[in-house]
Design a protein that fits this description.
Layout (H helix, E strand, L loop, with lengths): L1 H29 L9 H8 L14 E21 L2 E14 L8 E6 L3 E4 L4 E10 L8 E10 L9 E9 L15 E15 L1
Amino acid sequence: MKTISKLSNCAIITCFAAATLFTSSCQKEEDFAMPSTTTASTSAAKSVPSNLPAILAVPPGNEMSFHAYATGVQIYTCTETAPGVFSWVFTAPEADLFANAGNNGNGVGIHYAGPTWESNSGSKVVGTRLQGSTVDASAIPWLLLGAVSNQGAGVFADITFIQRVNTVGGLAPTTGANSSTVGQQSRVPYTAEYFFYHPQ
């Protein structure tokens, strides 16, 4: 009877540890606060700007999965684009993603070259620009991007489209590009919101 009791206790401890690990893993993905299928359309209607340019609309058959707030920089490199002509050429984004406005420390992922979005648990989506629209001349354009690859079993596993909206800042420098600054980088602060969509 003592042996059976010890085995039972071990089984209980093992199950508890497994459940704790599973819960911890799921929590990382839940940081994105994905709406359920029944509320996705409602959430999108409330969140996506009413002045969204028509060319940035996501094709039918997709619905909003979640969205994140980004704070970071747009990186530009001084390049000789033609003999004797120098300009700041976009290189990559570098930003942190947050679940809530105000970026109150609730970080849920990162955004970097690709362009790539990666969740805290490691799932990724790489996109390509499909359409762009300059809504504010003092900020980088709003974009519609299509997913070209997905990796991992997390929140980015089935993302099909991404919208970049509500941009602030991030434009390339208008001065300082010359023969003496070739190869140098300029890191321009920006903020934006990214809306992620998956199939209905």
